[in-house]
Amino acid sequence: MSQQAITVLGATGSIGLSTLDVLARHPERYRVHALTAHRRVDELAALCRRHCPRVAVVARPEDAERLAAQLADMDTPPEVRFGARALEEVAADPEVDQVMAAIVGAAGLPASLAAARAGKRVLLANKEALVMAGPVFMDAVRDAGAVLLPIDSEHNALFQCMPAGYVAGTRGAGVRRLLLTASGGPFRERDPATLATVTPDEACAHPNWSMGRKISVDSATMMNKGLELIEACWLFDVPPEQVDIVIHPESVIHSLVEYVDGSVLAQLGEPDMRTPIASGLAWPERIDAGVASLDLVARAGLRFEAPDEDRFPCLPLAAAAARSGGTAPALLNAANEIAVSAFLEGRVGYPAIPAIIDAVLTSCEAGSAATLESVLAADAEARERARELLPRHAV
Length: 395
Ligand code: NAD
Ligand code: MG
Description:
By secondary structure, the protein is α/β, with parallel strands linked by helices.
């Protein structure tokens, strides 16, 4: 088979690094076309030496200069570009077969969308893009004939449990219900009275997964599961009422699909993102991901619990936004991004996260999400409102 060219958006992140680990195991199948990072120039330079991309992208011109200088002694140094437009270009480049969309947050939307519009195989980790702009993103996938492969472990599990030949964005024949599993994060059993004083490091200490800091906080608040509920509705064309969330602290069952005949199919495995990444890269084939075999005996005793909405108020907020539709999920996502980054910077306490999101959703009116402009306007409005609320929650 001929080698496929891959662009990795967000190469220095947790998903980006896991993707490069899988790609490096299969040099006969894949070559790296472009690697992108935001500000981590030294890390990106090291990745360029190891994976020899044709193009490398960073955020600012001064970062690009520094990166180019660091790589000048390579035999074939990558072409170094900078800025948001360059991200879109490496996502849509005619040379590229697959794009790993692994930038975190709304910042990833334009490049993820550019990959879809260019008809690529889009490996979507950047869930915020779909949460914000579901209708626009799914229309782009359909219009351009892109192939959308979910990388979020739960959605990848659901995808794998769909009927043979299933295409993301369509309703799976005979599907009654989707069951999204959630670990419950680091605060599943913590005394709620002590949550007011948790630190960013405590919130990021996930029991089963090692991830970027934003998604780690989202896992602690369970906003991550709320975003995943909305993500699932777009990926699998189901209303939110057909998606149930169950806490499963061991993170061995990654999600389940229930069919009308009562059959329930699940995908299991060690909690290692290289499994969904390898599944997406090679789909419908299978390749080695470097992941250990699942030892069911060692992991005996899988538990399941209903989520407690009082402990995790972000869950009902997300479910309400999912039901409202339109730009409500974009408002939710933007408010969450501002609140989480303020929490990570030590500017607000942990309980401010749901409080700010709730206040933004109450004060900003949701409208139609049919165009990118309307989605970006809602995103900007919610960010501004959330920023205004920060001083009220200052620690
Ligand atoms: P991370 O913080 O580890 O990495 C983020 C990457 O995006 C980095 O390469 C960073 O340089 C880049 N980036 C950040 N801001 C940017 C900006 N403004 N412009 C351009 N690039 C920017 O995050 P992560 O944990 O790898 O998560 C990436 C995405 O994958 C998120 O949307 C997350 O929800 C999703 N996801 C992650 C995991 C996981 O296990 N880490 C699992 C499921 C889904
Ligand atoms: Mg997930």
